Amino acid sequence: MDSPQSLFAKGDKDLQVMKAGAMLKKVKSKSWKKQRLFRLQEDGQTIWYKSRWAGTGHSTFSVADVEVVREGHQSEVLLSVAEEFPADLCFTLVFRGRRGNLDLVAESPSEAQAWIRGVRKLIQNAESMDDKERVDQWIWDWFQKADKNKDGRMNFKEVRTLLKMMNVDMNEEYALHLFTLADKSKSGCLENEEFVQFYKILTERKDMWRVFQDYSRDRQTLTLAELKDFLRQEQQEGERSWEHAQKLIDRYEPSETAKKQGAMSIDGFQMYLVSPEGAILDPQRLTLNQDMSRPLSHYFICSSHNTYLMEDQLRGQSSQEAYIQALKRGCRCVEVDCWDGPNGEPVVYHGHTFTSKILFRDVITTLGEYAFKASEFPIILSLENHCSVEQQRVMAQLLDTILGDMLLREPLDGLVTQELPSPHDLKGKILLKAKKIGGLEESETLTDEATDEVSDEAEPESPSAENLSAEALCLHDKKSKFSRELSDLVVYCKSVHFHSFEYSRLHSKCYEMSSFSESKARKLAKDTGTEFVHHNSRQLSRVYPSGMRTDSSNYNPQELWNVGCQLVALNVQTAGLEMDLNDGLFSQNGCCGYVLKPDFMRNDDSFDPERPQDWDGYTSLQLSIQVISGQQLPKVNQKEGSIVDPLVRVEIYGVSQDQAKQETSYIDNNGFNPLWNETLNFIIHVPELALVRFVVEDYDKASRNDFMGQFTVPFTCIQPGYRHIHLLSKDGTAIPLSTLFVNVKISEVTTEV
Description:
753 residues; alpha+beta; seven-stranded antiparallel β-sheet; 33 strands; 24% strand; glycoprotein; hydrolase
């Protein structure tokens, strides 16, 4: 049995070089450089490596986990050893999610090129696989894991081991029955095609078959009219169901005979339901589909806090890679903490801590290179400035020369308007958020340096601020001096101290914005929610984590989105619930980093998130989710024989009245195809702000449940009907073939519940 990737690898010279293996230097720093033997495995997708002294110990990773290959000195680590290793020997493997890069040095330029081209070909081939090829690859992977003696066949003992590896606890009698059905040759072993047949028997979807039979009169196919009825009644597609039915047959039906008859078989039906069109997240909402011509203040904007940090806030590494990762995730507001550095060069790090330092110059160079790769819409560069006037001038010069035309230096068309420009108007532009002397309307002549009492943050956010010496605190509280050159680069994001909502309404300009600590923002949201919503319809607000979050943990962003705060900055390096919500919200609208706020947050409606029923446009909806089944859920404990007991929890995040959680019962010893058939019901008071999070956990009666996977979707992006939920890991990366099958119904609430 050959996998799609191994077949692809057989005829390629570069991949043959990779299969033969090579001694490559793995580089972690200037002082850590170790030789490792790297080799592409026979499956054509696993890279194996070990040190020559490691005995039988080794490590592996899948090419599917590699996002891109960088050639030459294109990482901080390889740049630091550039004098020792020429660029034509160096390359970097960049992984998906939050996993660190792998920096490698080959022994010759030709060897480096073979690996660079080879990995790129494998990535491209993996990404171009269709659904059938992905399943074939998955089957082959399991066959290789279970074929312990590597004879290309599997006896019943090996199959029993395989079932446990696949998260299935099946009684021996039934397992033998399936084995016998697949063993057509009666040899007592499963060979290539027999194992494929065994897998097909194992993965038969009786849950989808029952749905299919509900609409198929002959129990064999769905006619065009029957498929249309299914789409109209179950998938709630309305008038477009007839036209869409024909398109689905053309797209997913594998049988040419059925296609000619205008019908869909169970195979085509299954292919449709596991495709993006059958997913819970409407694929049309994944594209850029919102009005991008509104003022900046009318959007939620994906934002990062202390972007330079890869880890915690006290001793973590500062890195340009952190900016690349944040921008790749769609962040449109990144933060730079600037301090005086040696040789007149400003540095970036978390002041008064042991975090490492990087050059401001290098950060801005990275920003210039990666700013608009994931999104063409504007970036806000939030500058926390602790530099002397002299080094501020250096910063201004670096911003000007490195960013060039990308840096916005003056109001669009030279006009100062009453509202902020739109993301569309500011495409390809980087906006500096910092202190500014005077306003855009003023034509006063500034001195070369000026003083101002404005702080970049509403309150000190450094966790060590309480521990500063009396002298340092005195210096911290003095009036800040900053240069005219830097001040002049601030246009639409002038940092100002927040006094009150009334003061802002009477005196503030649209281009003035304030930063709030999470506790201050929460208090304002709770006490004066309606005023906060009004304020955020005219001006930008940035919220940042408490300085006490030294572990780089995050706060729940939802309660700040509820009052329209645009720049709710999170520690994007830290996986967890909060980043799941952030990723869920910004998964829509082409992942461009901008999501248009609901109408009632952009106009003069008196919306109070604490009392949504008082709002004129209030309409509540009922959300009913039947959790039917799960497919090929991941193992939590990799020990042989360990099988999960999965349960599904559905969590609603939104205004306080919408916060809710419900969960199914757990299924004993079955992570392969658990069946729940349980219905969970919710009332949603403000659908426009609600996020729905599906979480799968391994139940443990003695301790906390283990996380298995999750998926978070904006309520307004949900497709009703029978849908699959494609689960993501804690890191936010896809878990291959791991899904939940649900039936979603949304209806208006007609009576008081």
